[in-house]
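Entry 12.
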Amino acid sequence: MGGFLGFLVILFGICAACWSNVDADADTFFLRQFCNGGQFNAFDFVTPAATTSILENVIVETPKANLLNYYTDNTAAALHAHGLCTVSLSFDECADCMMSALHQLLEKCSNEHIGAQIQLRDCRLRYETYPFRDDY
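Predicted 3D structure (tokens):
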């Protein structure tokens, strides 16, 4: 009987942990970022405004995407971007996480770098001037 009671205690603890995470917010704790050393100059056809535009697109589309994983490119501006949220997040949680990632990315790297990426606990955001894939 002690073994069965112990099993119930463990099961209850696991279920309580699951239930407590149902309404949890996205974890936007900063893990790491990389800012490409290159910056846009006056002769580039890629501009900080184009960078901001493609990042805003990723922020809007990632929460709607299959598996919360969205990749896009703007070939006219030679920009490529990727957004990814932890699949357990709701639409709103993913949107909040992506917005936090954008704010933190621009705070740490600015939109004048030719590439940058940021990893938070529950989401990530990346843009570059060359095609890439973050398939994971």
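Annotation: The CA atoms of residues 53 and 74 lie 10 Å apart. The radius of gyration is 19 Å.
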